[in-house]
Amino acid sequence: MNIFSSNPSEQPKNIGLVDSFSRSVSYLRVSLTDQCNLRCFYCTPKPLEDKLDAGELLSYEELLEVIKVAAGLGIKKVRLTGGEPLVRRDVTGFIGELARLDGIEEVRITTNGMLLADKIAELYESGIRKLNISLDTLKPGRFREITGVDGFTRVWRGIEQSLDREFAAIKLNVVAMNGINDDEFIDFARLSLEKPLQVRFIEFMPMGDDSNWRQDYYIMSADIMARIERELGGLTPVGGGRFDGPAKTYRLPGAAGTVGFISPISDHFCARCNRLRLTAEGRLRSCLLTDRETDLKTIIRSGGTAADIRAALIATIKNKPEGHKLSGSEIKNCHGRMSRIGG
User: Fold this and answer.
1) How far apart are the C-alpha atoms of 58 and 40, rounded to whole Å?
2) Which long-range contacts (CB under 8 A, 24 or more apart) does 189-193 make?
């Protein structure tokens, strides 16, 4: 199926995606697969057999078709997630094609780092210049307890090899969990003193019917900041770049890198949210924490045109909610599988 006209004059002009609350949406997160080579207790608690068949995923051709339409509407940044995106076959070839699409100015990837050392050269050559690496502990034994896999050494080797290349940004995403890894917050922050990393602490939030989220695991970003400042000195705010996300970023005195905080519960950033999600099942989702989805895969596979995809994108953005309800005493779970929605 070729949903794009060969006549450039017939291509719709970039009109921009603006929701009902006047937020301009320019960022698409794409979950390439629900599969992962880790079994983090808070993300994928179901058995390994509970997975999507290959035919249930959008093909690379279908993904490129969708993203080309989205770029024509004003999407400029794409982040590839999962599951673990690097487990999908020929992913770097797909990234290379994606990076060449007109209108797409930046392609990023979020990975757990298990395959990073093997893929680092291909990722760089494909056009990736900014990496997000998920890492919740610096202790090999605890890594195994959290993820179910003895893989800390592999992940750390991937981080070191990333630092040897000229990536514009390397971010470590740390899900902050009271009683699980809170005794390591200072050690993580210290990494930014010597290495050009952005260490980002993410508030643990409820996600999915089968999530292992608990209220007593939750710790506010403000509390983490206070601990770091007591031990390592004051945190000075650092301005963000054009395509930077919701993290509030700071620098410790004399540090080579930075420390960031993502606070979806204590200080949510809904008012400036600029993102749309495409799940591993081919469903458009305007908010991580809202269950309303648009079945884009069915539209494509039933013969939908570029105009149909365009209309689905616009309708999804128009239905984007003003915000979520994860705050104060209203912290509640939401539906969906994080491994399919995309981290």
Assistant:
1) 25
2) 189/228, 189/231, 189/232, 189/252, 189/259, 190/232, 191/257, 192/251, 192/252, 192/255, 192/256, 192/257, 192/258, 192/259, 193/232, 193/252, 193/254, 193/255, 193/256, 193/257
Residue ranges per structural domain of the chain:
8-341
Q: Is the distance from CB of 37 to CB of 87 less than 8 angstroms?
A: yes
Radius of gyration for the alpha carbons in the chain, expressed in angstroms and rounded: 20
Question: In this structure, are residues 135 and 172 in contact, taking their beta carbons and an 8 Å threshold?
Answer: yes
Q: Do 275 and 17 touch, CB atoms closer than 8 A? A: no
CA distance readout (Å), 17 to 14, 65, 70, 246, 282: 9, 17, 9, 19, 20
- Dump pLDDT digits (tens) for 202-236: 998 876 555 566 788 999 999 999 999 999 999 99
pLDDT digits (tens, 9 = 90+) for 285-310: 887 667 788 999 999 999 999 999 99
Whether the link from the prior residue into 83 is cis, omega within 30° of 0, is yes
Residues 32 and 81: beta-carbon distance below 8 Å? yes
CATH 3.40.1360.10 fits 8-341, yes or no: no
Q: How many residues does the chain have?
A: 343
**Whole-prediction pTM:** 0.88
Q: Which amino acid is at 226?
A: A
